[in-house]
Amino acid sequence: MITEAQIARAEAGFARLKAAIAEVIVGQSRVVEVVLWGLLSGGHVLLEGVPGLGKTLLVRTVAHALGLTFSRIQFTPDLMPADIVGTNVFSEGEGFRFLPGPIFAHIVLADEINRATPKTQSALLEAMQERQVTAGGATHPLEEPFLVLATQNPIEMEGTYPLPEAQLDRFLFKAEVAYPEEGELVEIIRRNTEGGGISLPQPVMTRQDVLAAREVVAVYPVPRPLLAYAARLVLATHPRPKAGEPVRKYVRYGVSPRGGLALVLGAKAHAFLAGRHHVDVEDIQAAALPALVHRLVLSFRAEAEAEGVTPHRIVREVLREVRAP
Predict the structure, then answer these.
(1) What architecture is domain 4-78+106-132+144-212?
(2) The overall pTM is greater than 0.90
């Protein structure tokens, strides 16, 4: 049973966390919120944007503000799976022992994940889904909280390998990192060129605080009509006879059941960060884009883009068409 005192402590902790992040990161409030959804829901987050927009800095800032272990994996075409998960090495007197890779951290930055080959990308799958690594026949658990925050360049950029649908589905949420406005850009330049540059924040929460906040959010009630609404949204992305025209014409595969889970978990986290103790329709709708867009598989993609049809547009139209309770 979660008490009011536990809820109050969790809310105060995340208020401090948001304030600490804001001291370093200028703007990008939506991206920060989605990252916090992942932290609260125990799910991984994919950040997409061109280089230089502060994606790496955001992840480092979150890790420092939480006082959690942090590692960065720079994905390149020559990166091998063992470079991520670790390998067995021989030591005289000890025999073979497992040398953990950088995946063994609380917060893992998978930087430019779509610059590595599919074989290396797939090395993340077990760790992301099962929270464990298998090497040499032995299983090594990953300590919670375990959160992969992956950055991805737009797939139109040279030297990228599109992530397979199975791996995209492992990311609970996806957020697009937009270019800053003029005022934000001025502040970014000022912070990086005055007073010795940016310094990362001191820890404002602990590992135990994060796990306790997860327990609070997990028990947030979701009325059955809202669960049915989330299910209807997911089903409306499938090219069935009753689907809208853009879905029937341009969608090859709709959102997986895991997308429905992401929708509800994101709604719970959104309600928590808004200071409410229950989930409402607006929380489901706020979570729709981050939870669903990366799970849509389009057919005739070039034709769809020529007509301005994107996964974002399809999800927005689904939100308009599906009746809310």
Answers:
(1) 3-Layer(aba) Sandwich (3.40)
(2) no
